[in-house]
Task: inverse folding
């Protein structure tokens, strides 16, 4: 079994931590149901591997945490989108405010990206 290419042990040995591009951005839009869709430039990872999960924290201008969650990446969807995102309640963010989004990506074999913090405003 140790010579099989696709064992957990062998795949983990070849896995690399995800990385966010230097120009990572965050975007927010109001959805039809009145909630917010927060999107950001997705992390990159070598071909053949996936970003399994994102850990996100949103803080306000005073560095108070207003939202925190982990969510499964949409790696199982076949698309060419360059962003990843999640939906949060309209009561979480305030129109006209600036926020910081701190994101960390995790590979399927538990290797983590460096944290990336990007700012965004809610219109």
Result:
């Amino acid at each position: 079994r140790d010579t099989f290419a696709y064992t957990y042990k062998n795949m983990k040995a070849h896995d690399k931590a995800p990385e966010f591009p230097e120009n990572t951005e965050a975007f927010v839009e109001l959805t039809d149901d009145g909630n917010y869709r927060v999107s950001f430039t997705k992390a990159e990872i070598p071909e053949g591997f996936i970003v399994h999960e994102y850990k996100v924290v949103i803080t306000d201008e005073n560095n108070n945490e207003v939202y925190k969650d982990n969510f499964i990446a949409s790696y199982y969807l076949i698309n060419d989108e360059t962003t990843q995102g999640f939906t949060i309640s309209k009561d979480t963010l305030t129109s006209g405010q600036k926020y910081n989004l701190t994101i960390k990506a995790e590979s399927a074999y538990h290797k983590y990206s460096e944290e990336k913090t990007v700012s965004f405003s809610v219109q």
Notes: The chain has one helix and seven strands. Residues 71 and 115 are 15 Å apart (CA to CA). Residues 8-14 form the longest helix (7 residues).
